[in-house]
């Protein structure tokens, strides 16, 4: 399935239908340069679906099967597109009860939650407290991008165009006020040995959040949740934690 992004080009999404009994629905946002088919996204959503929580996962602008230019994206665009994904689910009669985000997707679902009226809870996995944390991935290119306006960035064998506007947007983006004003139950999950986004980010999110808030340490997991069982374990924790907030749970 496809829906229009906030920039116009269509985004490609996939729905993991929930097993019976249906407990609720959710939207999953993947990490910075990942996709809906990355292990953290696909395995987490499939596990949640197997436990009665239907999930929509989608490729961000210019990634995976989505149209558009990745370099035209930004943190604000990612947040806007999470909101549009929630609206897409609502339009098909299955409004999302929960937003789940991995890595930068975790920051984006926190920022998007207040604009998705049906959402009852938010869960993050390995999320950064400051969106500009992503700059460490392309640090060697920053000076060239700021001087020339753009540069080619090779990620996983794919060439992406890194633009000055994207770099500057991530430097400006703020998450703290979104955390403070969230007003929804928040589950913060993070591996203490995460070498990509330090676990200190989880501490800052948790400390800024209001109750009800929960923290779960994903012992032994890597940032991308690639090892067997890591994503499924995270999903089982989310499923159990979300019980009181899902309409199908009595």
Explain this structure.
- By secondary structure, the chain is of the alpha/beta class.
- The chain has one domain (2-131, 174-244): Rossmann fold, CATH 3.40.50.
- The chain has 8 helices and 10 strands.
- The strands form 2 sheets. It has an 8-stranded mixed β-sheet, with helices on both faces.
- A hairpin with a 2-residue loop joins strand 7 and strand 8 (158-163).
- Helix 1 crosses helix 8 and helix 2 (75-91) crosses helix 3.
- The chain is globular.
CATH architecture: 3-Layer(aba) Sandwich
User: What structural category characterises the helix and strand content?
Assistant: alpha/beta
- Give the overall shape: globular
Identify low-pLDDT runs: none
Strand order across the largest sheet: 1-2-4-3-5-6-9-10
Helix proportion = 25-40%
Total domain count:
1
CATH top level assignment: Alpha Beta
Q: Tell me the Rg in angstroms.
A: 17 Å
CATH superfamily: Alpha/Beta hydrolase fold, catalytic domain
Q: How many H/I helical runs?
A: 8
Per the CATH scheme, the topology name is Rossmann fold
β-strand amount: 15-25%
Distance between the ends:
31 Å
The main sheet comes to: 8 strands, mixed
Can you count the beta strands? 10
Mean pLDDT: 94
Series of secondary-structure elements, N-terminal to C-terminal: EEEHEHEHEHEEHHEHEH
Organism: Actinoplanes lutulentus
Protein name: Putative redox protein
Domain Serine aminopeptidase S33: 26-159
Pfam family, one: Hydrolase_4
């Amino acid at each position: 399935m496809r829906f229009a992004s906030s920039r116009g080009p269509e985004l490609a999404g996939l729905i993991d239908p929930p097993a019976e009994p249906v407990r609720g629905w959710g939207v999953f946002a993947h990490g910075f340069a990942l996709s809906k088919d990355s292990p953290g996204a696909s395995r987490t959503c499939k596990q949640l679906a197997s436990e009665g929580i239907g999930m929509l996962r989608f490729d961000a602008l210019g990634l995976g099967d989505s149209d558009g230019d990745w370099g035209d994206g930004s943190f604000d665009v990612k947040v806007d597109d999470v909101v549009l994904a929630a609206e897409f689910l609502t339009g098909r009669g299955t409004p999302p009860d929960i937003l789940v985000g991995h890595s930068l997707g975790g920051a984006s679902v926190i920022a998007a939650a207040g604009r998705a009226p049906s959402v009852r809870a938010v869960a993050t996995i390995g999320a950064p407290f400051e969106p500009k944390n992503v700059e460490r991935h392309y640090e060697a290119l920053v000076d060239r991008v700021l001087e020339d306006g753009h540069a080619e960035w090779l990620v996983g064998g794919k060439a992406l165009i890194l633009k000055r506007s994207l770099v500057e947007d991530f430097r400006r983006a703020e998450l703290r006020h979104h955390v403070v004003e969230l007003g929804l139950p928040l589950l913060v999950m993070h591996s203490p040995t995460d070498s990509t986004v330090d676990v200190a980010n989880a501490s800052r999110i948790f400390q800024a959040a209001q109750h009800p808030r929960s923290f779960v340490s994903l012992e032994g997991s890597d940032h991308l949740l690639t090892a067997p069982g890591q994503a499924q374990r995270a999903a089982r924790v989310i499923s159990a934690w979300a019980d009181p907030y899902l309409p199908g749970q009595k």
